[in-house]
Amino acid sequence: MYRSKAHIYLAAFLAILCQNINAQFDPNYVDGRTTMVHLFEWKWDDIAVECENFLGPKGYGGVQVSPVNENVVVANRPWWERYQPISYLLTTRSGNEQQFADMVRRCNNAGVRIFVDVVFNHMSGDNVNARGTGGSTADPSNKSFPAVPYSSTDFHDTCAINDYNNKYEVRNCELSGLKDLDQSKSWVQDRVVDFLNKLVSLGVAGFRVDAAKHMWPTDLEVIYNRVSNLSVDHGFPTGTRPFIFQEVIDLGGEAVSKNEYTHMGVVTEFAHSNSIGRVFRGKDKLRWLVNWGPEWSFLNSDRALIFVDNHDNQRGHGAGGADILNYKTSKQYKMASAFMLAHPFGITRVMSSFAFDNTDQGPPTTDGNSIASPIFNADNSCSGGWVCEHRWRQIYNMVGFRNIVAGTNLQNWWDNASNQIAFCRGNKGFVAINGDAADLNTSLQTCLPAGTYCDIISGDKAGSSCSGKSVVVGSDGRANISIGQNEEDGMLAIHIESKL
Questions:
Q1: pLDDT category, 127, cuts 50, 70, 90?
Q2: Which of 41, 70, 210, 312 is catalytic?
Q3: According to the model, what pLDDT value does residue 23 have?
Q4: Domain named Glycosyl hydrolase family 13 catalytic: which ranges (predicted)?
Q5: Rounded percentage of the chain residues whose pLDDT exceeds 90
Q6: Cα separation, 18 vs 216, whole angstroms
Q7: Which of 180, 219, 247, 250 is catalytic?
Q8: How much is the pLDDT for 242?
């Protein structure tokens, strides 16, 4: 069949376009790493040190950082002021552009990638002569943001989102009164692409796209395809595309579906957070986790960015309500995190919080404005108002577990027909979880070679002994597994590298 040159050129263009889009699903981790952590509201200087001293050595693959661009200053400094942009200048309470660039460089050198939470669905809400963290001013009431610059012609008409079953309202009207940018306009696209490309030039590995649900997929596709490949100067291979994960809250029953975004990048799977919370709160039995994944109405594994909680829903915002687990329910939270990290489904993100009593409360400060640095204790935990779940032994050791068992399948599932479960990851790892009001004490197949193993939940391998529990595996791969109902941790995990 004859094909014109135009058809050939079009086919070649579409092939390149498809290649670019498909490449946006790879987190670009250093080999052997599988999990990112969200260091919510941390300062850039502190993140740099954490990459070097803890995240790199413990095997974390990346950090999601809070929005990096200038935001409006709100009285009492709530956390959500970071989600009210006033310009794309890289100046926030976390630091300035130089500090950000230094942090990205140092984290990349430590084998830890940086993913930026980018906010370009909207600008700030009504604040007369609003002042930003970089000293810029704006008049949001008149949709005037001269530091970008944006004017009223760059925004959708003013309207409120009243009906989430109307996708035109969801995408064209104002989320919580925030001035809604029109991403179909070339000027807006240019400014957003310039912003994203600036971050790429500084060495970031990808982006969390805030409020993607509130933007038209066709507009996002244009923007994503104009973003530069990752920087070879920062160690990324030639032609590497930025990792894109998009915030789309979809628990069903609304006009906008998460499936509308999966051809462009990964999507934050809020149904995973909601469902894992229900299970470990005792509202579903652990035995039903046997088919965890798309059969629970989740996205396919390679399209799902999964988490136990995030900065929104841990406060009761967004989706999931009272079912969401957070650090305040620590035993169940650790159990859910261990299951998430042990199971092969999804692209995993660990939350790292600051303590809060009020859902608007901002991060710890030294003077009511300046963010305070975490205080690190001898046992790796944090204080000074920081929770640092990523430094909990039960979580960081399971991040290591996931790295070690990567590429293996889940096998030898066992349950007691209720809330005690266990499974292997190939012949590299084994995990057991007890959610019952009774002890777990039985012989189970671990799929591991004979020997004595240290339980990485209760302690670590320390020379030729274990600081926590030990598990003796026989020549048949079986071991007696014991988890008491009243133990501090409701799970046990061993892997080939925890063998004495």
A1: confident
A2: 210
A3: 60
A4: 34-402
A5: 92
A6: 19
A7: 247
A8: 97
pLDDT of residue 465: 96
* DSSP code for 302: G
Both tokens of residue 298?
A: 């989740």
The type of residue at 403 is N
Burial class (CB in 10 A: 0-12, 13-18, 19+), 88: buried
Is residue 157 packed enough to be buried (19+ CB in 10 Å), middle (13-18) or exposed (0-12)? exposed
Question: Over the range 223-233, which residues count as b (16 or more CB within 10 Å of their CB) and which as e?
Answer: bbeebeebbee
Tell me if 134 sits within 8 A of 233, measured CB to CB.
Answer: no
Q: How many CB atoms are located within 10 Å of the residue 397 CB?
A: 24
- CB contact at 8 A, 298 and 269: yes
> Which tokens in the block code for residue 275?
């469902």
User: What is the longest distance spanned by two Cα atoms in the chain?
Assistant: 74
169 noted as active-site residue? no
For residue 106, what is the enclosing H or E element? Answer: helix 97-109
Residue 452, token pair as written in the block = 């004595």
Give kind and range of the element (H or E) at residue 267: strand 266-268
Helix %, strand %, coil % of the chain (to 5): 35, 20, 45
Residue in the structure block whose two tokens are 């990523």: 390
**Whose structure tokens read 């850039």?**
44
Q: Give the angle subtended at the CA of 269 by the CAs of 203 and 171, to the nearest 5°.
A: 85
pLDDT band at 16 (very low <50, low <70, confident <90, very high): very low
Tokens of 61: 């693959």
Helix (H) or strand (E) holding 333: helix 330-342
- How far apart, in whole angstroms, are the C-alpha atoms of residue 428 and residue 430? 7
For position 322, what pLDDT does the model report?
85
- The single residue listed with the structure tokens 């068992």 is 405
- Known catalytic membership, residue 210: yes
Q: How far apart are CA 257 and CA 264, in angstroms?
A: 14
Provide the whole-model pTM.
0.94
Q: Are 196 and 207 in contact (CB under 8 A)?
A: yes
Residues 6+ apart with CB under 8 A from 368: 77
CA–CA separation, 93 vs 73, rounded Å?
A: 10
